[in-house]
Design brief:
mainly alpha; 10 helices
Amino acid sequence: MRHEDIMLILAFLAAYLIGSINSAIIVSKIMLHDDIRKYGSGNAGATNALRTLGKKGAIPVVIGDLLKAVIAILFAKLICSDSSLAVYIAGIGVVLGHNFPIYFGFRGGKGVATLVGAVTGIYPPVALLCFGVWFVMLMVSHYVSLSSMVAGCCFPVFTLISPKVNGSTPFVVFSFVIAVLLIYTHRKNIER
C-alpha cells in the first residue's frame, strides 16, 4: 500500500474518531446528569440540545460540533500535505463519526453543525451560501429540519455553480455524498 493511501486512511479514521466525540451527549451529562437521547426527539444534536437544555446548553453543543469538524479538516491537511482529497475524506469521516459515534453506541446526531464546520474548513464561501439558505428557510417555515435539508440539498448545487470548485471532481462528489447523508439522517422527519 502506498504511503499516500495510508495517510488518507489515517485522515478518515482520525476524523471519524474526532467526530464521534458528541458534544450534545457530553453537555447533557454535565447539565442533566443524563443522556440527551432520552429527551425530546431522542437525537444527540444541537436542535434537541436547544429544546432540552436551552440556549445555555445548545451554544457549547454547536461550538463543539463546529470545532471538531474544523479540527478534523486541519488535521487531514497537516498529515496529508494539504491534499484536497484528504480534506474531503476527513469531512465525510467527521460527519459519519457525529452521526454514528463509536463511543456512544453508534447513535448520534444528524450532522448539520458538523457538516457546516467541515464545509467551512474546506471552502467557507459555500458554507456561507448554505447558511443563508438555511436561515431564509427557517424564517419562512419555522422548521429546523426542513431548513437543514433544503440547505444540504443546495450544497451540491452551489458546488456545481461555483467557478472556483466546480472543476474539482472530489469536491463535487463530497457535496453529493454529504447531501445524501443529510437526507438519510433526516428520514424520520421526512416521514412525519
